[in-house]
Amino acid sequence: LGGLADDLLDGLDRLREGAASAFDPTLRLGVTGLSGAGKTVFITSLVASLLDRNRMRLLGAEAEGRIEAAMLRPQPDPDVPRFAIENHLSALAATPPRWPESTRSVSQIRVAIRFRPGSWLSGLAGPATLNLDIVDYPGEWLLDLPLIEQEYDDWAAGALAAAQSPARRAHAAGWHKALAAAEPSAPHDEAVAEALAGAYRDYLFACRQAGLSALAPGRFLMPGDLAGSPALTFAPLPRPERGARGSLYAEMHDRFDAYRRVVAKPFFRNHFARLDRQVVLIDALGAVAGGPRALADLTATMSETLAAFRHGRPGWLDRVTGARRIDRILFVASKADHLHHAQHGRLARLVEAMLAEAARRAAFRGAKTRGMAIAAIRATAEQDVTEKGKRVGLVRGTRASDGHEVAIYPGALPEDPASLLAAAGGAMPGEAPASWPDMSYATFQFAPPRWPHGEGPPHLRLDQAVEFLIGDRLE
Ligand code: GDP
Q1: How many CB atoms lie within 10 A of CB 267?
Q2: Which of 27, 123, 234, 345 is deepest in the core (most CB within 10 A)?
Q3: What pLDDT digit, counting tens, does each position of 6-54 carry?
Q4: Interatomic CA distance for residues 268 and 265, integer angstroms
Q5: Position 227 confidence tier, pLDDT thresholds 50, 70, 90
Q6: Residue 130 has what DSSP assignment?
Q7: Does ligand 1 lie within 6 Å of residue 38's CB atom?
């Protein structure tokens, strides 16, 4: 009889759980950033750290012992790929451990967090559950938002002008050659269109290689499942005197419109407009290592990113049914473990200074914003050595390329990192400010660490980031 009663109770429990989960509040957290910024590692660590919370002391609800359980639940959108958490965790647990495969498209995953509310009154109602839907998408796609409202001619004029800038001109040589050989008013020829689109894409890739980040259209760099499709086979052309129907120019014009309609707009409608909170990962150390132009470019990209989140978005986006308002945005430099902790404060201040500058340029207001320096997964330990009577802070870890244990000096950020921004803003073409720090070792590739099964991954301040992002919803 006992067994039967148990089964019955069990069934009732499940029924209750099922009924409750349909009404449980959800929070949709977007995670974005340019390729290589650390999205996949961040989400993998975030999910693993919520499931096994032994290293999450700065998450208030956890510190107060109010989180009862966290579990994966089927995600609500059947047409969106699931974030491949199991694959990513097994890459990290492999021998030797490997970093997971990076983001190429949009995916999502749901973690249900059962917690006791913080206040005595709401605590009377018993435990509550928050469904945290984490949405991973390439930052490159986000930068397409301004494109949606642009006409082909304006976009093309802007792209042609940008390619003349000192930072970019050298990378545009191949594309400019293809451009000179093409006649916009001539009848459309697919081979010419492909050559132009290919050369334009190569130019964008070369710019990215050089550390530049303001690169649209986003799908050219991160095509998702659209690689090679006509919607991606276009390029900017100057407006000819006569761009008659059937001309190369007219065809490019149409494809640009198609890109806006069938690629860019649906992404914003289906994913972006439904977010409540947003993490933007930035490779701030990589940008410092890349020099003044790369840092200035990343700051400009942050400004564009903020513009996408600005209240008073384009009318069509606000009219999307169910469009929400993002009320918290966190910018994180996510590889702080590449620096000795003595420098973490400087990195955080640099991110804050970049954010302040980006917000100023975007005339941003509305959401609560913050900048932080964290390591989603900490791959290094620290080592202090004394050289010529001076203490030097090194970081030690396993070199990704050959598995050797190495200690490196990553370079030093200045005491006042805002001065870097000022220097980057004022840097004359071709001329690096005299005091620019050599941070080339800060982008060193370490292999991921091992950690005990059943524990969350080692990290730096991931719990603090999570507190900012969802802490108030666990009250
Ligand atoms: P995505 O393109 O934004 O998805 O970037 P990934 O998450 O795949 O990260 C790209 C690479 O950056 C990884 O393969 C790691 O080499 C490195 N990385 C990312 N996050 C961390 C981190 O927290 N610590 C360290 N040491 N390296 C990281």
Answers
A1: 21
A2: 234
A3: 666 665 655 555 555 567 899 999 999 999 999 999 999 999 999 999 9
A4: 5
A5: confident
A6: E
A7: yes
Nearest atom in ligand 1 to 34's CA: 3
pLDDT recorded at residue 294: 87
Same domain? 345 vs 209: no
Domain count, the chain: 2
Alpha helices in 182-241 (DSSP H): 190-209, 218-221
pLDDT in tens, 406-420: 999 999 999 998 889
Cβ–Cβ < 8 Å for 3, 182: no
The answer to whether the beta carbons of residues 285 and 333 sit under 8 Å apart is: yes
Q: Residue for token digits 């419109």?
A: 257
Q: Cβ(44) to ligand 1 under 6 A?
A: no
1 against 318, higher pLDDT: 318
- Final residue before a domain boundary, out of 233, 268, 303: 268
Same domain, 331 and 458: yes
- Residue among 466, 449, 467, 329 at smallest CA distance from 47: 466
Q: Which residues contact 436 (CB under 8 A, 6 or more apart)?
A: 291, 292, 420, 423
Domain of residue 199 covers: 147-268
**Once rounded to an integer, what is the mean pLDDT over residues 304-309?**
88
Residue 337 CB–ligand 1 contact under 6 Å: yes
Q: Is 125 exposed, middle or buried (0-12, 13-18, 19+ CB in 10 A)?
A: exposed
Distance 81 CA to ligand 1 centre (A): 21
